[in-house]
Each structure stands twice: as C-alpha cells, then as structure tokens.
Amino acid sequence: MASQIDLHCHTTASDGALAPVALVDRAVERGLQTLAITDHDTMAGYLEVKGYAAEKGLRLIPGIELSCQWRGINIHIVGLNCDPEHPVMKAAVEAQGQVRYQRAKTIADRLAKKLNTEINFADIEKLAGGEIGRPHFAQYLVDRGLVADKAQAFKKYLGAGKVGDVKSGWPEIDTAVRWIVESGGQAVMAHPHHYKMTRTKLMDCLALFKDAGGQGMEICCGLMDNNAMGNMRRIANEMELMGSCGSDFHGPNKFGLDLGVMPKFPEKDIQPIWSAFL
Ligand code: AMP
Ligand code: MN
Ligand code: MN
Ligand code: MN
After folding, report:
1. Which of 37, 73, 116, 199 is 20 to 30 A removed from 84 (C-alpha atoms)?
2. Per-residue model confidence as pLDDT tens digits over 216-225
3. Is the pTM of this model over 0.90?
C-alpha cells in the first residue's frame, strides 16, 4: 500500500509533468491524505491549487525544494510548511529565479559551443513553462534529435561534471536553511543518499545544515532500496534529526514511481518531521 503522506513532489511550475490540478487529482485518486508540493525554487504550483486541494479534502502542505551548493556539490533542501507570503520567502524565490534564469542562459551558451549548433532559448523557455531546469534542456536535446533520450542527455551533457552542470550562483546551504526557517518552515535535507558522498562527508554536511537550523532529512524516498533506507535512518538518529518521506514524483513513468511510493516510514525508530506541523 502506498504511503498516505508524501512530502516531496513536482508540478509543471518546475520540472514536473503534471499541472498542479492534475497532481492534486492524482493524489486524491491514490488515497493520499497529506501532500507537500515541493517544486524547485518556486511555490507557484502550491499557490495555484491551495483552495482546490482543500475542496477535495486533501491536506496540502506548502513546500519548496531550494537549490544550493556545498563544497562544489549540488545540494537540495526541502522546506515544509513555510509561508509563501513571508517577505523572506518571497525574496528567496525571486533571487533563486534570477539565478535559474542566468544559469539557463549559461547552459544554453555552453551547449551551443559544445555541440557546435544553435540553441533556441525561446524554445526551451516554452518547454519549461515555469522555472527552467536541466530536464527541460534534456527534453530539448531529445526533440532536436541530438541525443537518444533524456538519460543520455544527462549522461553526456547535463549531469554532474558535464558541460551543462552549472552550479555557480546557487547559495550556500546555511542561507537556504535560514530562508526556510525565517519563513516559518522546517528545513529537510532532500535525498541525502543521492549525493555520492562518503558517510563522513555527509555527516559534515548535515552538521552544517543542523547548525543553520535544519531539523530533518529524508529517510524514505521513491525508488530507494532498504539498504540505503537503513543507512539514512541510522545517520538521522546519530545526527538527532527528524525523518521525512517523499516520492520525488515528477510525473508518470515506466519505473512505477508514483505519489506515495516509498519504503514504509519507521515511526517507532525516528520522529517524523510532520509531527512539527500536523
Ligand atoms: P536543475 O534543477 O536544473 O539542477 O535540474 C535537476 C533536476 O534534473 C533534478 O531535480 C531531476 O529532476 C533531474 N535529473 C537530475 N539528474 C538526472 C538524470 N540523470 N536523469 C534524468 N533527470 C535527472
Ligand atoms: Mn527535478
Ligand atoms: Mn532534488
Ligand atoms: Mn525533487
């Protein structure tokens, strides 16, 4: 059975495939009770369906997934239950949007050079609709026939260390955490098992995150195996952080990842982050 709480997913406001209304409908169909929309660097999707979700009886938590960096690694921090109207959050979204836009321009220039072709930026903006991210570049490269599929686009041009992996401009972790905390939310380290860090390095990163006011880390994520889950649960316990759970759903796909799909949350071993706001 799918979890009834999902605190990490995306809409077309960032790089998700479903419009906010369709996402809420899907959550209701799948029997979820609580959903946080956590688009990359924007709360527009949440704002669009706040009222609609209430009508449908779905408890919708305002959320965001902020892009930041630490020692040259791209880190994502999820903010839960933050106030989208708080001046600090409004300024953060504005600043992140500017970084995203400038970064997208740089990615386009770099890809044009690397592939020795013109990159039509307006087409990419159209594909994105909302905040522009690397998945939109991946789609553009597929549409142009320059790569076979999106996975190949990341592998060759957009993934970590490749020409389109532009990190400059993103704030440091502690800045992102403070934005969330000051706007009344809980800061959660997103998918900590994805960063390919050693255990020691991850603990250093989490220590900084916690010093800045971070309270939780995701321990149950979509497509996570039991081994990774156990490791993250132990680290959360050791760091005295609460646990969060979220599918990171970006749209229907062939891997069977869907809203609510994740390992069962070990409530007897670890305090759930949602105890702070439900
Ligand atoms: P950005 O926010 O522009 O840095 O893009 C990061 C997003 O790209 C992530 O949130 C994922 O949705 C997506 N992504 C990252 N790596 C891959 C990959 N290897 N294949 C497909 N999508 C990816
Ligand atoms: Mn994404
Ligand atoms: Mn992420
Ligand atoms: Mn995400």
Report:
1. 73
2. 999 999 999 9
3. yes
